Amino acid sequence: MDFKMISKNAQYAAEDVLKSHIETAYRAAVGDDACEVSIASAIFDKDGVSFKAIALIFDQGGTIDFTGLIDFDLNVMLLLPEG
To answer: How far apart, in whole angstroms, are the C-alpha atoms of residue 48 and residue 2?
Structure first.
C-alpha cells in the first residue's frame, strides 16, 4: 500500500467519526453548539489518527483552525488555539 492510499484512508477514518466524536468534542470544549467542523487533513501515526480541522463559527462569522488526535479507543483529544 502506498503513502497516498494510507493518507486517504486516514482522511476517511477522521471523516467517519467527525459528527459522532470530533464535532461533539469541539462543541463541548468551546461551548458553541451551532458551529460546524470539517476535516482539512488526517494521517495515521503511532497513537491513532492525527487531524487538522476547521470550525465554522456562525455567530462570529469566522473560522478556527485546530488539530487533534483520535486514539485507537476513539477518544478525541483537541489542541485548540489560545484566545
So the answer is: 18
